[in-house]
């Protein structure tokens, strides 16, 4: 998160927590191309969330954030 945002420590922590709590799961997305894209990013023992124009990849076991990155521009419809 530090490399991909300009947020300070407290803002990054709050953003991480909001994404974990309020982020959309791939099955909640109505746009089929976006839903398939998010499913393709899922890895073993992890889950994906979409929040605030970013894709978050979390560990299923301890809810640790593996990585986050901006949603690609080809998905111009934010859901």
Order of helices and strands: HHEEE
Mean pLDDT: 85
Helix-and-strand structural type: alpha+beta
Number of strands: 3
| Through-space gap between termini | 21 Å
- The DSSP helix count reads 2
Q: Strand-residue fraction? A: 15-25%
Task: For the largest sheet, list the strands in their spatial order.
Answer: 1-2-3
Helix content: 25-40%
Overall 3D geometry? globular
Number of domains: 1
Sequence stretches where pLDDT stays below 50 over 5 or more residues: none
Biggest sheet details: 3 strands, antiparallel
Using the CA coordinates, give the radius of gyration. Answer: 12 Å
Written overview of the protein:
This protein is α+β, with helices and mostly antiparallel strands and 79 residues long. The protein has one domain (9-70). Helix content is 30%, strand content 23%. It has two helices and three strands. A three-stranded antiparallel β-sheet has the order 1-2-3, with helices on both faces. A hairpin with a 5-residue loop joins β2 (54-59) and β3. The longest helix is centred in the N-terminal third of the chain and has 14 residues, at 9-22. It is globular and about 35 Å long. The model has no long low-confidence stretch (mean pLDDT 85).
Fill in the keyword field for this structure.
globular; alpha+beta; 79 residues
Task: Report a brief summary of the structure.
This protein is α+β, with helices and mostly antiparallel strands. Helix content is about 30%, strand content about 25%. The protein is globular, with a radius of gyration of 12 Å.
């Amino acid at each position: 998160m530090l490399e991909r945002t300009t947020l300070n420590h407290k803002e990054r922590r709050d953003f991480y927590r909001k994404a974990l709590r309020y982020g959309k799961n791939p099955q909640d997305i109505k746009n089929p191309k976006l839903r398939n894209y998010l499913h393709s990013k899922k890895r073993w023992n992890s889950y994906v969330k979409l929040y605030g124009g970013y894709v978050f990849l979390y560990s299923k076991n301890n809810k640790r954030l593996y990585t986050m990155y901006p949603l690609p521009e080809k998905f111009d419809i934010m859901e």
